[in-house]
Amino acid sequence: MIDVRKVLRSFRFAGQGIVDLFRYENNAKVHLLIAGIVILIGLFLKLSTTEWAVIITQIGIVWAAEAFNTAIEKLCDFVSPGLHPQIKAIKDLSSGAVLILALTAVVVGIIILGGHLLELSHTD
């Protein structure tokens, strides 16, 4: 039997994690700002359903990666508060993963939004 109260409590904890991510993490705030700009541009360009699905997926992937990166960094700082070369490597790899996904999202955005902007500029 599913314990609905436990499920709801889990959602509440997860929601608090999302709020904390965007409240306290500077890079997450940057990703949020860029996502907002991309969404506004997408609304202006009247993206197709498929294009929206791709754009929203990219935004979600970058936000999730930023959350994982933040969790890994916090765990590393808790386990090893001092400087340690292995902890540095772990944190660098984790932030590198976010960078890979963010750059991929930029390329996807350029392909989708850039194509529409090119079409728009050629209709004038």
TrEMBL record:
Its EC number is 2.7.1.-. It is an enzyme of class 2 (transferase). CDD domains: UDPK_IM_like (cd14265). The chain crosses the membrane at residues 30-47, 93-118. It comes from the Bacteria. It is a multi-pass membrane protein. Pfam families: DAGK_prokar. GO terms for molecular function: kinase activity. Keywords: ATP-binding, Cell membrane, Kinase, Lipid biosynthesis, Lipid metabolism, Membrane, Nucleotide-binding, Phospholipid biosynthesis, Phospholipid metabolism, Transferase, Transmembrane, Transmembrane helix. The keyword Cytoplasm does not apply. It is found in: Cell membrane. Its main location: membrane. Belongs to the bacterial diacylglycerol kinase family. This is Diacylglycerol kinase family protein.
